[in-house]
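[stage:ingest] chain + small molecule (flavin-adenine dinucleotide)
[stage:ingest] validated
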Amino acid sequence: MTKTYDAIVLGAGYFGLRIAQNLRESGKARVLVLEAEDTAMQRASYVNQARVHNGYHYPRSILTAFRSRISSDRFISENQAAIKKDFEHVYAIAKSLSKTNARQFEEFCNRIGAPLSESPNEIGKQFSPRLIEKTWLAQEFAFDSNILRELVMSQISKLGGIEIRFATKVAKVSQSAGGTKVTTEGGEEFEAPIVISSLYAGTNELHLASGLALLPIQYEVAEMALVQMPTEWKDRAITVMDGPFFSLVPFPSENLHTFSHVRYTPQVRWEDKDDSEISKLSKRDLDSFKSTFREMKADLVRYIPSLSGVTYVKSIREIKTVLAKVDLSDSRPVLVRGDFGIPGYYCVLGGKIDNIYDVVEELHEQLGL
Ligand SMILES: Cc1cc2nc3c(=O)[nH]c(=O)nc-3n(C[C@H](O)[C@H](O)[C@H](O)COP(=O)(O)OP(=O)(O)OC[C@H]3O[C@@H](n4cnc5c(N)ncnc54)[C@H](O)[C@@H]3O)c2cc1C
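[stage:predict] done
[stage:export] tokens:
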């Protein structure tokens, strides 16, 4: 028997949960969320760098940088308990291979109103003067994904009216008399006039099985090496911009730092150009990739010799999913497509956690809520 709801959300990542919450707050009485994993926010919403982007990262996309500045303030004030602020964030510009120089970076931060101050000498002198042009202290924080999940789950439970089914993989969506029918791998059927797909890396696999067009997505298997910092660096994050460099950012949910490198973190890259490229990599497939920690560390100590004490703990990996053709600008536009092959079927994709505000605003507009 097909169960009916006012709205169905596919995927219980941060986006799916917040969209379900929003639909409920907008008056949808019965909302269903379907999630393949055993709990919420286990995939990209957990496996990420945990950076609350504050604009600095996007000197080649002023629009993304501006939006980041606005969304970041809101995200921080709404999720205080999940925000880690008690560390210094050191940004640095490399002397060669960087797409932006120190003067341009300062001008850019000034333009978007992102605070940047001279870094104290004790920090600056740790960086190789041969390789680094300049260092600053920036104001950019990190989020604890576990606390974020607790916050959103508690808001959802207070609201009532939202049912979440875990360990339920969606196999197909199709048009039905009541809107969109959702069929699970286990053969259950659900139906609603509004169905919103928020499956991140899983979107095109569902579209292929459902005979829908594929989204223009590009993927990379990304490794986040989780590391222990030497004591004197424990309360610092480091981001070297803007090219084949690296970042070390606190990962509050495990009390470690993520270590990533533009050259080594993407372990494979591909686009869904045809059916053969659909990303069906399981968590186990992802874990079979070899860590590039050694290569990353070899490069790190060239730039910051005093970080030779960074120690590897483990790696977490996810399929990073961005809209095709954003490579040049490194921008993070959001995608919200309504009536996508089926009336009332919507797909969303956000490039960073705080894109949720843009996604919800756009959904409201398209749904007329
Ligand atoms: C390596 C990496 C680093 C990043 N760093 C940052 C950062 O520092 N700051 C930042 O703001 N953003 C960062 N991001 C981006 C951010 O993590 C994502 O934009 C955000 O988590 C997307 O949330 P989501 O809910 O759409 O995706 P997810 O959290 O992946 O949720 C999608 C859900 O759909 C479920 N699902 C998939 N297919 C099916 C199916 N067929 N049936 C049922 N359920 C299904 C999945 O299990 C998953 O729970 C990073 C991403 C990656 C991968």
